[in-house]
Design goal:
The complex is a heterodimer of chains A (about 160) and B (about 425). Chain A has about 160 residues and is α/β, with parallel strands linked by helices. Chain A is built from 5 helices and 7 strands, in the order E-H-E-E-E-H-E-H-E-E-H-H. Helix content of chain A is about 35%, strand content about 25%. With about 425 residues, chain B is an alpha/beta fold. The chains are: A alpha/beta (about 160), B alpha/beta (about 425).
Chain lengths: ~160, ~425
């Protein structure tokens, strides 16, 4: 089963608000640059991956991020499923997580970002592992959309 | 005399053409139900494939698609809805175009008799009228390794008269459905037809099939029964008893019943007298008679054989990982899945073949020893409850709920097992 993407034309979910600060935060941390391959709303088996990019570090490979304004637990559950695509699977949220949520993220083996206006803060790193399939990396390579394209879309609507 | 073997029917979809040729794992299905929308709109393409395939099939006129849907707003009719309407009565398309619904009063005696004749004529002439592309599909099938020469080309095995969704025998739409069966019996004989008895989703229970069966003209020996929106996962003891009572009434009248849209629970009921189950390849184990206008197969999912349930592929892998945490192996040993470290990279065709293999195995198990099949369901259900009762985490909690469903099925079926 392949992943596919829709154009990021009408992403009007509340999570849309997290996308730009997350991208800018990742840029500031040097985890990607303007030319990094990235895409949003990637559909995979009746779910969507909110954001994915190809890391500059080859040993990391593709990175998947689930964005959630609230219900961080749900983001962690979704990110847990994304681990089949890549072990570098993260949940990103505005809401400072409780100890219980942090424990849950660790159990699932997913990373957790706290997103703020001025950046993002990794609270937990994902557990190492192997992807079960290469479809996410294949999609990013085939689609060839870049971070600068996403930022341009977010700027101009 | 009706064929006594249980039949595994599949609702035909163009996207399944390849998997319907898959026979390296044995014969995975017995017969096709071809939707009237496809048969009328893609007449030569569907006809060419289905006739070339040389396996039994019927054409479902899907008449409830024309039925007044004042409760559920009708979406804009697609071209295939209009061609389907056309084989019933050309006036239907004009009524829709005027923004109105086709009410009961439209179907006066003369018009209805003409409609029944028209729908049946479409089916009886399908073999000759829909064969323009048969050579093309025969070549494709031969190139795929199919042996066709020893098998004759046949039109629909049985004819399905037009039918309506009804709430029971008092429903005025039932009078029309019954008349359609009468006309079909008169013109083609009772053993040439296989009517559909469609109970509306809000009809009281499957037990209402009993009165419809009792009211059928004499000589009808096979029917499809369709309970709108019947969700097997929510089935309780009364639902199951209702189906089994209908099966018994059918048996007493010499009528074999096939569930038009069923899944694993219906498969278990084939061990208790249900003569067939129909479903799509990975979908349509439940169908609303009010939403026939919303068509198209959903994305393929993974069938978990011991849960008797479909899950999305990532969810299925997660469930397998969770179940495997204690060393308990719930993985599938079929020819597609055996030896795989992961199911996540299975392609659509493989998911379909895997499902059909599992479904055939379920049917075989129910046919050989229904008591053992029911106990196997109970055992799997009890293991899930034992492991996951009172667990917070959402996936584990859904496994507990699934366990309770399986035990509920087993309890309801056990009381009907032969002594």
């Amino acid at each position: 089963m392949s992943v596919s993407a829709r154009k990021p034309v009408d992403i009007r979910t509340p999570e849309h608000a997290l996308l730009r600060p997350t991208l800018l935060g990742l840029l500031r941390m040097g985890w990607l640059n303007q030319m990094s391959l990235a895409d949003v709303e990637i559909s995979w088996h009746q779910k969507h991956i909110d954001l994915a990019f190809l890391s500059r570090r080859q040993e990391i490979g593709p990175v998947a991020v689930e964005l959630k304004v609230n219900s961080t637990s749900r983001a962690i559950a979704q990110a847990g499923l994304n681990r089949y695509l890549t072990p570098s699977s993260w949940a990103a949220t505005w809401t400072p997580p409780t100890a219980r949520v942090l424990a849950r993220a660790q159990e699932e083996g997913v990373g957790l970002f706290l997103v703020a206006e001025r950046g993002i803060y990794p609270l937990i790193y994902p557990r190492r592992g192997q992807p079960h399939t290469s479809v996410l990396a294949d999609h990013l390579l085939m689609r060839r959309r870049r971070v600068r394209d996403l930022l341009s879309y977010l700027r101009n609507g | 005399m009706a064929d006594t073997a249980t039949r595994h029917w599949l609702s035909f979809s163009n996207s399944d053409q390849r998997v319907l040729c898959e026979e390296t794992h044995g014969e995975l299905w017995d017969a096709l139900v071809v939707p009237g929308t496809l048969a009328t709109y893609y007449k030569q393409g569907v006809g060419g494939y289905v006739l070339a395939r040389r396996r039994p099939f019927v054409i479902d006129p899907r008449t409830p698609l024309l039925q007044d849907t004042s409760v559920t707003p009708r979406p804009v009719p697609r071209a295939s809805h209009e061609t389907l309407a056309g084989i019933h009565d050309p006036e239907v398309g004009n009524i829709w175009a005027a923004g109105r619904e086709v009410g009961l009063e439209t179907w006066n005696a003369e018009r209805w008799e003409r409609t029944v004749a028209s729908v049946l004529k479409f089916q009886t002439s399908f073999e000759s009228d829909a064969a323009e592309k048969i050579s093309k599909y025969e070549k494709i099938l031969r190139d795929a390794g199919m042996e066709l020469d020893n098998f004759p080309v046949h039109g629909p095995e049985r004819l399905i008269p037009p039918y309506w969704s009804v709430k029971g025998i008092q429903d005025p739409w039932w009078r029309l459905s019954r008349e359609a069966v009468e006309y079909a019996v008169r013109d083609h004989g009772p053993t040439r037809i296989m009517p559909v008895l469609c109970l509306a989703g809000d009809a009281p229970s499957a037990q209402s099939f009993e009165e419809l069966l009792t009211d059928l003209p004499e000589g009808v020996d096979r029917v499809f029964c369709w309970k709108g929106s019947w969700d097997e996962a929510a089935a309780d003891a009364d639902d199951i008893a209702g189906w089994l009572a209908a099966i018994d009434v059918g048996a007493m009248r010499g009528v074999d019943i096939t569930n038009m849209y069923g899944g694993a629970l219906s498969v278990l009921m084939t061990g208790l007298g249900l003569k067939g189950v129909n479903h799509g390849v990975g979908y349509s184990e439940s169908r609303s008679e009010r939403r026939l206008g919303q068509t198209g197969a959903p994305p393929m999912r993974y069938y978990m054989p011991r849960l008797r349930q479909f899950l999305t592929v990532p969810q299925a892998q997660r469930v397998l990982d969770i179940l495997g945490e204690t060393g308990d192996d719930w993985s599938c040993g079929c020819g597609v899945c055996r030896g795989r470290a992961t199911i996540v990279d299975l392609k659509t065709e493989a998911l379909k073949v895997h499902f059909l293999i599992c479904r055939q195995a379920e049917l075989a198990e129910a046919a050989v020893d229904i008591a053992t099949a029911v106990e196997s369901v109970r055992s799997d259900g009890e293991r899930l409850i034992e492991r996951f009762a009172n667990v917070d985490e959402s996936t584990r909690h859904t496994l507990e709920l699934r366990g309770r469903t399986l035990v509920r099925w087993a309890d309801a079926l056990s009381s009907h097992l032969p002594q």
